[in-house]
Design goal:
The protein has about 250 residues and is α/β, with parallel strands linked by helices. It is built from eight helices and seven strands.
């Protein structure tokens, strides 16, 4: 198994990419801690893993709260004895509005969850990863953290910040055998795109705006996350892996 004897935290694990990655990690032998603000969804993910013979527990966590993230890491180590992998995946979108019309509180909320949440995950996980002798951190950015899209100022900025924060952490902790990488998904079939799906004018364009001409699945992204978490990616750090069906080239 590619993650045998590994312990992993996955934030935003109640649904979508986070749930798919949790199930994939568990199938490869990892013990999981699922973190999310969605209590029902998080517990359901943990239950699905246990039904498949894996080990998982759910801890309700707001990733923008430093104490809650610190407690999440501590509870993981208490439950399983160590931490090997952190998948900083929790994130939200913003309403499609022009920058000048975006409410400041909404800007702060998106930056706090999408960017500060990744920072806090790194901040509190690295000391435990050092104790383990190293490990892997994977951060969820986005295709829209690489190329801009109008009306999504806060989301664009937060996800672009994740890419540079990933590079920074890779440089700071590489000598501690901690690899830090990011993924940049394109349009993936998750809750975050429900608004687009309901737009009869935009959706036919958005759903085919990549080289493959279709949207991706959470499971396809989970495969990329598994690769970056595994020893198969042992010489990869500071990288951002696009999982976008060729959206960046379109």
């Amino acid at each position: 198994m590619r993650l045998g004897d590994k312990t992993a935290i996955i934030t935003g694990g109640a649904s979508g990419i986070g749930r798919a990655a949790a199930l994939r990690f568990a199938a490869e032998g990892a013990k999981l801690v699922i973190a999310d603000v969605n209590d029902d969804g998080g517990r359901e993910t943990a239950k699905l893993i246990e039904q498949q013979g894996g080990k998982a527990l759910f801890i309700e966590t707001n990733v923008s709260d430093s104490k809650q993230v610190k407690d999440l890491v501590s509870a993981t180590v208490e439950a399983y004895g160590k931490l090997d992998i952190l998948f900083n995946n929790a994130g939200i979108g913003n309403p499609d509005v022009k920058s000048v019309d975006l409410d400041e509180d909404e800007w702060d909320r998106i930056i706090d969850i999408n960017l500060k949440g990744v920072f806090l995950g790194i901040k509190h996980a690295v000391p435990e990863l050092k104790k383990t002798g190293g490990g892997a951190i994977i951060n969820t950015s986005s295709l829209l953290g690489i190329k801009g899209q109008k009306y999504l100022a806060a989301y664009n900025a937060s996800k672009a910040g994740v890419i540079l924060l990933t590079k920074n952490a890779a440089l700071e902790y590489g000598r501690d055998n901690i690899r830090v990488n990011a993924i940049a998904p394109g349009v993936i079939d998750t809750q975050i795109i429900e608004g687009w799906k309901n737009d009869e004018r935009k959706w036919p364009i958005i759903s085919r705006a990549n080289a493959l001409g279709r949207i991706g699945t959470p499971e396809e992204v989970a495969n990329a996350v598994l690769f970056l978490a595994s020893e198969e990616a042992s010489f990869i750090t500071g990288a951002t892996l696009s999982v976008d069906g060729g959206g960046l080239t379109f």
